[in-house]
């Protein structure tokens, strides 16, 4: 299957690295130097500068530009694509339909993990492309099909923004360790190892079971856990998801 990427920034590069061995890849961008560098690193793909008028007829397009670039880019894309895969945050399928012609549309939300082929990607859109879409985005990590754009907006506040929330937790834990006298490098190593070991735990158990498994009566975890509840960490996290969802809807309404 051939995929035509439009845009060759961070998200496109991550996807292309994941897909290059199993898909025929063409990349259209606007910066000749960065396109050449990409081609040098992956000689099996083709790259070129986007034409002033680009015919996208019968192509499988993977749109990887920033949402604000769309009004400038869309008028240059002529013809009707076969499929349009969009990674644009906050850009609805309705908005894509009004700007770019395609037989079918898919909207996705990868996350920063894509740079290590560990994205948690959510996908929605034309049901007939479900398997194909999951296949494509599984190349950069895990993907989850959702049944509506509303669900994708909720998921955006969890998996899309999630690396920032977990970074706050990681930083705070390291700061706490430093405050108690641990060296910064050791605190960082500790937290990094903790997240590494936590990934398989959360993949296999529910959070309450993990917590119950580590919290013994009157022990250290129970003391620390009570401090987190006093600090409102649970409520702050739930509010973070709620506010991110509200913002995702606002952005979608604007785009
Ligand atoms: N990064 C993430 O973690 C993440 C997560 C989820 C979703 N996304 C979505 O992924 C999309 C891309 O993000 P990114 O981080 O990859 O951005 P980026 O690194 O800035 O890449 C954007 C790419 O689009 C190209 N471009 C911009 N305007 C263009 C135009 N008019 N014609 C042709 N090419 C154009 C840029 O070219 P130049 O090199 O010349 O600037 C660049 O190659 C965004 O819509 C974002 O919402 C990103």
Automatic annotation (TrEMBL):
Pathway(s) where this gene product acts: Amino-acid biosynthesis; L-proline biosynthesis; L-proline from L-glutamate 5-semialdehyde: step 1/1
Domain called Pyrroline-5-carboxylate reductase catalytic N-terminal: residue spans: 2-78
GO aspect biological process, one term: L-proline biosynthetic process
Segments forming domain Pyrroline-5-carboxylate reductase dimerisation: 149-251
GO MF, one annotated term: pyrroline-5-carboxylate reductase activity
Keywords (A to Z) from UniProt: Amino-acid biosynthesis, Cytoplasm, NADP, Oxidoreductase, Proline biosynthesis
One Pfam family it belongs to: F420_oxidored
Primary localization: cytoplasm
Keyword NADP: yes
Keyword Cytoplasm annotated: yes
Record EC number: 1.5.1.2
Chain positions recorded as NADP(+) binding sites: 6-11
GO terms under cellular component: cytoplasm
Subcellular location as annotated: Cytoplasm
Gene3D superfamilies documented for this protein: NAD(P)-binding Rossmann-like Domain, ProC C-terminal domain-like
Catalytic activity: L-proline + NADP(+) = (S)-1-pyrroline-5-carboxylate + NADPH + 2 H(+); L-proline + NAD(+) = (S)-1-pyrroline-5-carboxylate + NADH + 2 H(+)
HAMAP family cross-referenced by the UniProt entry: P5C_reductase
Stated family: Belongs to the pyrroline-5-carboxylate reductase family.
NCBIfam families hit by this protein: PRK11880.2-4 (NF008839), proC (TIGR00112)
Role noted for this protein: Catalyzes the reduction of 1-pyrroline-5-carboxylate (PCA) to L-proline.
Protein name: Pyrroline-5-carboxylate reductase
């Amino acid at each position: 299957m051939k995929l035509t990427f439009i845009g060759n920034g961070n998200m496109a590069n991550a996807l292309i690295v994941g897909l290059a061995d199993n898909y025929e890849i063409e990349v259209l961008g606007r910066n000749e130097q960065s396109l050449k560098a990409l081609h040098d690193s992956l000689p099996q793909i083709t790259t070129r500068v986007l034409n002033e008028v680009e015919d996208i007829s019968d192509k499988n397009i993977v749109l990887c530009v920033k949402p604000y670039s769309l009004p400038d880019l869309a008028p240059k894309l002529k013809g009707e694509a076969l499929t349009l895969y969009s990674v644009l945050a906050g850009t609805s399928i309705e908005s894509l339909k009004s700007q770019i012609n395609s037989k079918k549309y898919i909207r996705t939300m990868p996350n920063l993990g894509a740079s290590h082929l560990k994205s948690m990607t959510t996908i929605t859109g034309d049901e007939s492309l479900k398997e194909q879409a999951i296949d494509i985005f599984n190349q950069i990590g895990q993907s989850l099909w959702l049944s509506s754009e509303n669900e994708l907006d909720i998921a955006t506040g969890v998996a899309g923004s999630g690396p920032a929330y977990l970074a706050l937790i990681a930083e705070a834990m390291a700061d706490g360790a430093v405050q108690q006298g641990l060296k910064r490098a050791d605190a960082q190593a500790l937290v990094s190892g903790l997240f590494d070991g936590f990934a398989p735990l959360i993949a296999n158990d529910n959070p309450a079971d993990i917590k119950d498994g580590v919290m013994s009566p009157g022990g250290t975890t129970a003391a620390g856990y009570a401090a987190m509840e006093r600090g409102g960490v649970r409520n702050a996290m739930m509010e973070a998801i709620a506010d991110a969802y509200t913002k995702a809807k606002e952005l979608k309404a604007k785009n």
